[in-house]
Each structure stands twice: as C-alpha cells, then as structure tokens.
Amino acid sequence: MAVSALSRWAREAPVPVFVAIGDGMRERVERLFCDPGIERAATPRHAAILLIAGRMRLEDREDLRRLHDQMPHPRATLLWDAKVGEALGDAEIFSGGTLESDKDAGEAVRDHLERLWQDLASGERPSEPDLLHDEPPNPWEGIGPHGQGGKGMMGGTPYGRPMAMTSDDLRDGLALDTYTARFGPFLPMFPPGLLLEMTLQGDVIQAAKVLRPPLSQKAEENAPAALSRLARLLDLLGLPALGQRTRLAVAGDRSSSTLEKLGRAIRWSGAMLAIPPGLGAVEGQGDLSARLNDLLAVAGGSSPATRPELPESAHLSSLLPGLEWSEAMLVLNSFDDKTLSMLAMVMDEPDEERDGHDHDGDHMRHDHGGHHDHGGSHHEHGRHQGEGGQGGHGDYGSHQGHDPHGSHGGHT
Amino acid sequence: MMELIAVLLLLVFLSMGFAGAALADGMLPALIAGQARSSWRRPIAEAARLLTTQRIRTEAPDALLWFLAPTLYLALAIVGLAVIPFGPGLVTIPSEVGIVVWGSCEALTIVAVFMFGWSANAPLPLIGAYRYVAIALPAMLLSMFVLIGAALPAESLAFTEIVEAQRTVWNVVRQPAGLILFLMLGLAISLRGPFDYAGPEDLAGGTTADVSGPSLLAWKVARLAMLVSVSAVTATAFLGGYLGPLLPGFVWLALKTALVLIALVAAGNFFARMPPARMMGVIWTMLLPLSFLMLLAVGTELLLWG
Amino acid sequence: MEIVPWIIIIGVLSVLWIRGVHSVQRSATAPQQIPFLGGGTPDTHAWQRYHIRYYSMTLLFIAFEMEMMFMYPWAVVFVEEGGKAMMEMGMFLAILSIGIVYAWREGLFRWQ
Predict the structure, then answer these.
(1) Does the N-terminal or the C-terminal CB of chain C have fewer CB atoms within 10 Å?
(2) Which residues in chain A touch residue C45, judged by CB atoms under 8 angstroms apart?
(3) Yes or no, beta carbons of C3 and B82 under 8 Å apart
(4) In A97-171, where does DSSP find H-type helix?
(5) What are the alphabetically sorted keywords of the record (chain B) (predicted)?
(6) How far is A94 from chain C (nearest CA, A)?
(7) What is the pLDDT of residues B59-101, one digit of tens each?
(8) What is the pTM of this model?
C-alpha cells in the first residue's frame, strides 16, 4: 500500500524535464519553464521526461539516444516539433504546427508534459526501455586481474575505459593527468547544440575544439534576447531565483518599474564584484564584466549596445584554454547568439595541429596576462601568465606579438 | 531523566526544523522570483517522486563511499545538533568541549561532500568535490576563530556555559562581524548560494550530477538537516540560545533558529557566487584577518571591562 | 556522550530506509552508466591524478589547524591569565599572519 500512496504523492510533484533545445526553440523552451509546475532538471539523472524541442542535426541523434538512456526509470520522451526520425524509438510526438500562436503551443506542450508525468507516475504508461545496446563502451581487455595490463602501469581498459594519462599543464607545467571528453551538445550550461572536445587538467581547460557549432537561435539582438542572456548568467552566478525573475519579466511584465527593481536586486547581489576583471576579454567586445554591465543597462531601460565586429581570429579554441571551468562557463554564456556562432565556427585543422601544438597565432593558447591591468586585486594579477610556459610549452610565450587579443586592455 | 527529555526534544526540534527548512527552501526562492507561492505539499511530493525513481550507478563507482556519504553528512548534522542545550541542563550530549565536537562535525562535512562527489567516477561531480574542498577548508578556519571568540567570555568550550555567559549581553553584540562570518560558514556547510561550490549550476549540479532517485533524496535530506543544525548552533553561540523572557527556553531557541534559517536561505538566493579561486583569495586575505580582529576586539573588551 | 553512536546508527538506518523502500529498483544497464556530459562521451575514467591547484594553500591550512589546537585550552584560561594570554596569542597570530602575507605575495591563492 505504501507504494500506491507514494505514487499518489509523486503525481503531485512538479514535472522534472530535461530538455534538449534544437533550432530556434530556446526562447519558447525558456518560456515553458516559467511555469512552476514544470521543473528544468540540470541533468537527465534528475529527470523523468526528456523533451526534445526543435529540429536536430543528424549527428545529434546518437547523443540524444545517450541522454535518453541516462535517465532513471520511470521515464518518457516528448518530441516537440523535433524531426529525429526513429532515433528515439516510439516517443510521444507533439506538433505545434496546427496551433495558432506560440503561446497556445507552449500551453499545449505543458499540458502534454503534465499528462505524460501523471501516466508515468501512476504506472499506466510503461517506462521506456534503453535505445542503445547494453554493452560496455570498451571490451574488457589487457593483462592482469583488473585488465590493467598493457604498457607499464597504464594501458588496457579496466572496467571498460582506459585510465587517464599525464601531460604538461598550461599554467604550472606540472605533468598530471589530463581528462579529455566531448562536452555537449546538450549540457544545460552550454549554448544548445555546441559540442566541444575539451581537455581538462584539474578544472582548468587545456584545449578546446569545436566539433559542432551551436544550433542557431533567433539571432535577433533585442531587449528580450538580452534579458534571457542575463538570466542565464545569473543562473551561473548562483542566483537562479533572480534568473527566474528575469525570465518571468521577459515572458510577461516588462514594465520599467519591474526591471528597475530587478536591476537593483542584481546590483546588490554583488554579481559585478564576483567577476574577476579582465576575464574573457575579446577585442571589441570588452571583458565579461563589461558585457554583463551592458545587459544590466538593458534591464535599466536602454537599448542593447551594439558592439563592433569580432576580429577574425577570435575563436573559442583560443578563448577558453587557460580558464577555470566556472570562468569558462560564464564567458561562454556572455556572448549574443551572432557573436557566439562566429566564435564557435568549426575549423578544419590539419592533423598535426590537432593536439594543440600549432604555431599559428590564431589558434594558440594566448597569454591572458595582458588583460590584468588593474592595480587593486593582486591575487588576480597575472594568474594566467608566467609558469604556463614551462615544460615543453615554452614557445607559447614568444608568440605574444601575434596574440590577437593582446592589444586589448593594455599591457602591464 | 534530563537526558531522555533532551533526546525527545532533539527529535522534535530536528523534525520541526527539517519541515521548516524544506518549506523555506521551496517558498523563498519562488517569492524572490516573483512566482506563485508553491504549496506545502510540494516538498513531500518531490520526495515521493525521488523514492519511486530508479537509482543509477555510474561506470565503476565507489559504491560503498557513495552510499556512506549522505549517511555521514546526516549523522554529522545530528551530532552537531546534539551538543546544543534546549534549556538549562537540557542537552543531549552534555559535553565539556561542545565547540570542539561541532568543529569536528564541520571538518568531517568536507570529507562527506568530497566522498559524495568523488565516488561517482564522473567528471562534473569530481570537479565539484575538489572545488568544494578549496573553499570549505579556509571557511572552517573562519568559523572556529569566531567560535573561540564566543567561548572567551564563557571561559569554557561547552555550549551550555556559552549560553549562560550571554545572560548579560549576547555574543552578537560583542562580535557582530563574527555572526556574519559564521553565517558564511553556514552557507558553506549546508551547500547553498554563494558558497555552494559542490553543486553549482555551472557543473550541472556538480556532486549530484550523476545521482538519481533515493540517493539524491538522501543527500537533499542531509543538506537540509545540516542547515537546521548550523542555524541552531548560530542561534546558540551568538543569539543567546534558549535565553528569553516568558516563553520556555526551547521555544526561544526554535524561534531564533527559524530566524537564522530564513536568513541563510534568503542569503543563499540573494548573493552571487565568485569563481572559486577568487573566493579562496578573499577568504584568506580579507575574511580571515577580519576574524582575527574580532577575536582581538573580544579579548580587549574582556580585559578592560570583563 | 554514549548517545552519539545511537544517533549515528539512527542516521544510517533512516538513510537505509530511504534507499530501501521502493519497488522500482533495477540495476543500471551499460548505456545508463555512462557519465553525464550532455550527450558526449569521455575518453577515460574520471578518476585521475587530479591537478589540485590549491595544494600549496593546504599547507598554510595545516599551520592554522595546529594553531587551533592551542587555541582551545587558551580560550578557557584567557580571562584568568589576562594580558599575558592576550600577548601570547597576539604574537602567535601575528606570526601566522605573516605567513598569510608571504603566501599571498607568492601567489598561493591564485590557483596556479
């Protein structure tokens, strides 16, 4: 009996949805989550329903299947104007094409999600089975009791995967293990669709390569778009409640008094103080705090600032390396869609450049030291410079003359 | 006899505090966001949902530690609460060294959080775990310095004595900045807002990113229990604990704890989080010297007028 | 004091209960076990010789942790001993503070 009482309670819970946002759907999805009855799960582990909103690329399908399988049972999938063929099995399909307005479609999707959850929680709808084969990513191989054999201590694939191997670090040159993985395309703190192959040491990004660009959103830069971007930054700064308030303002009441109060709350939160000066500086675009300031100005009633065109050489593969994870996520979310799509273009690199040992000024991990021209906070000073050149990477420093961003912010 | 009553009071306090914490945690963010007030049934419904969800294990996790981490976290919260007196002589563990017991609960919390993030063998939880240690270690120093400042006038490390020593003047008057520093520690060990370096949004939930179902629920329960516990310790060390006119001591402690708890939940939603390296620098170079100064001020005050 | 183990046991049991009282449990399949990366896949296990950039800070931390141990008895006798205790601890803290200044100058807090 206890179980049926539990499931009766569970039906009342807000619907936990993990969403994969496709072409041009971000705005509508964000409006959907303004509803308190629907909760945006940070990972599929916390979700019961996978919502696939909008058109996806062919190559995204495998990742969607993986996300689907990562959800715990009971689980279900809803396709919202998503054309993914049979990739997701026989998932629920919702097509908003017949409805008159976006708003109606949003409400219909919400109802659909709630109904799905009711059916799942009560057990009327069976949980969806796995889409991928139940076999380990790598066959167990190698010598020894744990399959750890191979060369020396390393090699082999213990428990299905190889162990990490050492490499020199960008900042201090210590040779500790690197972690390479493909992050995205539907990581909640990434722009939807962006797939990066990154190498980390600790939580500092050593190398980043764009494998798939972000899916295009409606790239029009207007006040609502700027406010949504502000909301995403607020989430990352640990202010989800203020972020939600911003999103509610975007969806509904955008009167000046609401926005003014919001702007005041954001200023009082110390968001500007929290951001290290000079972080994520790009020529013509200012640094992260300048961009956040622009967004706050939009909340204050002024129209979005127009920034000059990006320099051709600016690219995520040179912007992200050297940053800590949390800083990198802030930087990644601070650009408008058009700028981001330029920063995240897929570059065809010759094979020898793949491992980051390129000597081309465009792709090199540039020295961030030049941006720290502020006097006050010593502990920020020169944090990305200096010892990074040790141990095999010594030649990066000598490229400062080619550094596309070096001229911005002034050298100390 | 007294101890038995204290144990009963502990259970009442914990369950009341836990319910209050769950409600405050659900309602305050909605209030700040300007959203419709959520129902009191919502936390229960969410708990029921997590209970009826499958628990997932990752590839080759450390299953034992993964299981033990929420347990340890919850146990630490309860032990921390047990050294708090609910009235004169009404304490579950009448320890002579209550502050030291609480301090070890703080320290072991770091171990619990690290274990939880580490054992999933997954990248995002791992980063969250290591990051949390960087911030929680110095934050713990802060709290111990201000607690020593609270122990000085009592000439004792027992919470019972610390409360009695506040009959003349509450410790918050002696060291107002100490209260604020201790609240920061409260945010850090209950993993919230500006000090939540273990499960932040930029890591998609950090230590909880690969946790589902009942395990996630256990972790959330432990987190809220720790919030109650640290609120009660704050109320005892700085706001006079059970002292107060008319009403019984237990009620006063509950009221003060509720006040601190709401302040903590609100602060967790109102203040922005710095990148971890910056925060670490701020704690060591600004907040820690501030806690020295508070200690110095309390000492001087005692020598001159004590 | 003897109540502490009981509290811990109750804690353990309640978590056990939380983990046990449900009927939907089944063991996770291989695709379910892949760590969450937003759909992407890792090359290796996540466990590694992790690059802890604050390792030098932990040394400073140990110095203060030891200091804390002296501080507990000191707090009890402070009022009794008066100015002498004040001076002693003041000197101790001053020396440690020089440690902080030195660490700051060396860039310990920069996550190199």
Answers:
(1) N
(2) 158-159, 161-164
(3) yes
(4) 102-122
(5) Membrane, NAD, Transmembrane, Transmembrane helix
(6) 23
(7) 888 888 888 888 889 888 888 888 899 888 888 888 888 899 9
(8) 0.85
